[in-house]
Amino acid sequence: MKTAARRERLVSALAGRDLEAMLVTDLTNIRYLTGYVGSNAIAFISADLAVLFTDSRYAVSAREQATGIEVVIGRRDLLTDVSEALAALSGAPKVAVESEHLTIARHRRIADALDGVRLAPEAGLVEDLRVLKDEQEIAAIARAAEVADRALADVLAPGIAGRPERDVAWDLEGAIRAHGAEGASFDIIVAGGPRGARPHAVPGAEPVPADTLVVIDLGAVVDGYCSDMTRTVATGELPTALARAWRVCHDAQAEAVAATRPGLRGDELDRIARDLIAAEGFGEAFGHGLGHGVGMDIHERPGVRQEGREVLKSGMVITVEPGIYLEGVGGVRVEDLLVVRDDGPEVLSRHEKQQPSA
Ligand code: ZN
Ligand code: ZN
Q1: Half-sphere exposure in the Cβ direction for 128 (13 Å, CA)
Q2: Which range of residues forms the domain containing residue 140?
Q3: Among 16, 51, 112, 340, which is most buried by a count of CB atoms within 10 Å?
Q4: Cα-to-centroid distance, 334 and ligand 1 (Å)
Q5: Which ligand is the nearest neighbour of the Cα of 294?
Q6: Per-residue pLDDT for 83 more than 90?
Q7: 212 C-alpha vs ligand 1 centroid, how far in Å?
C-alpha cells in the first residue's frame, strides 16, 4: 500500500476521535506513514496538510523516500521548525500526539513550542493501522523469513557441537546479511544444554555441548520488516526428559498453529498450547507467552499471551512459540512466523523441525 493511502486511513481514524491532525514522533510510525528512513524526523498529518520535518543530513534521502508529502529541512531540533510551520494553522486545532512514545519532557517541549494547538495524547492510532499487513508488507516479511531459513541451514550444515555459542550466533548474523537482509532483527540466541533453560539466553564463549538440545532463535530484516523463528536441535543422543520435552513442545506448537484463525483472541490461542503442555506435566516450565505480532518491529501487536485480548484478524502476522525450560537440564522452544488467513494459517518459517533421537 502506498504511504498516501495509509495517511488517508489515519486521517479517518483521527476524525473518528474528533481530532484534526496528528504529530507523529515515533520513527517507525513515521516510516510507515511517509517512507522516511532515518534518525531524526517529525511528521504532521491532517486532512489537508502532510509535512515531514527532518534535518539536512537527510535532505536528499527524505525527498526520495517521502513522496507525495511536503519535506521541510529544519534545524537539528525540529521543534522550532514545526512550530513555525504550524503557526499558520487557524482555530487552535486538536492534534494527537503519541502518548506511548513521548517522554514527559518532550511532551512539555512540544506543548510549549506549539502554543496555538491543543495536544491530545492518544495511544495506538498508527499501530491500529500497522497491525493489519497488506500483501506488500507480507511479501517483505516472507522474504525476511526465507533469509532466516537459509542462514540457519547454512550454519547448521557443518555441525555446531563444540563451537562457541557466540561464534555460531555471529555466523548466523553473517549468513543473514550474505543472503541479502539489512541485518538481524534482534540479538540472535544460541543456547546449548542447561543454558537453553533461559528463554532469553545470551550466547557466550561456552562451546555447544554434545548430546543435548540447542535453542536457536533468529530473525532477519528485509525492507524494514522483521522475521522471527526458533528451532531447537539435538547434538546427539538426548536424556529422556529432554527428548520428551522436545516432543511435547512441538506437538503443542503444531496444534496451536493449526488452530490459528481469524476471530480467536490471543489468549485463546495461547491456552490451546498451554493446556497441552500442562497436561503433560510441563505447565510450570512454560513461563512466557505463546507469541507476538511481528512487522516493522520484532515485537508488536497483537499480543498472543495469557493477557492478550486482541482478536486475530486476517492479515495479521504472528509467531507461535511455546517453550519448555527445565532448569539445570536444558530447554526447547519452537517458533514459526505465520500469517493469519481466512482459509487457515500461512506458515512463513520453512526450516525443518528434526525429531531428535532419544
Ligand atoms: Zn524468536
Ligand atoms: Zn518471537
Answers
A1: 12
A2: 135-347
A3: 340
A4: 9
A5: 2
A6: no
A7: 20
Residue 231 Cα, ligand 2 centroid: separation in angstroms? 11
226: domain CATH number is 3.90.230.10
Same domain (yes/no): 142, 108:
no
State which residues have CB under 5 angstroms from ligand 2, the bound ion.
228, 319
The Å distance, Cα 189 to ligand 1 centre, comes to: 8
How far apart are the CA of 329 and the centre of ligand 2, in A? 22
pLDDT band at 354 (very low <50, low <70, confident <90, very high): confident
CB atoms within 10 A of CB 70: 12
Q: Give one DSSP letter per residue of 310-334, joined into a string.
A: PBP-TT-EEEE--EEEETTTEEEE-
Non-local CB neighbours of 188 within 8 Å, separated by 6+ positions: 169, 172, 173, 203, 216, 217, 218
| Cα 321 to middle of ligand 2, angstroms | 7
Nearest ligand by distance to the CA of 317:
2
List CB contacts of 122: < 8 A, sequence separation 6 or more: 17, 19, 22, 96, 97, 98, 99
The x, y and z cell numbers of residue 187, run together, are 540479538
Q: Tell me the average pLDDT across 281-304.
A: 97
Tell me how far the alpha carbon of residue 198 lies from the centroid of ligand 2, in angstroms: 14
- CATH assignment at residue 124: 3.40.350.10
Over 70: is that where the pLDDT of 1 sits?
A: no
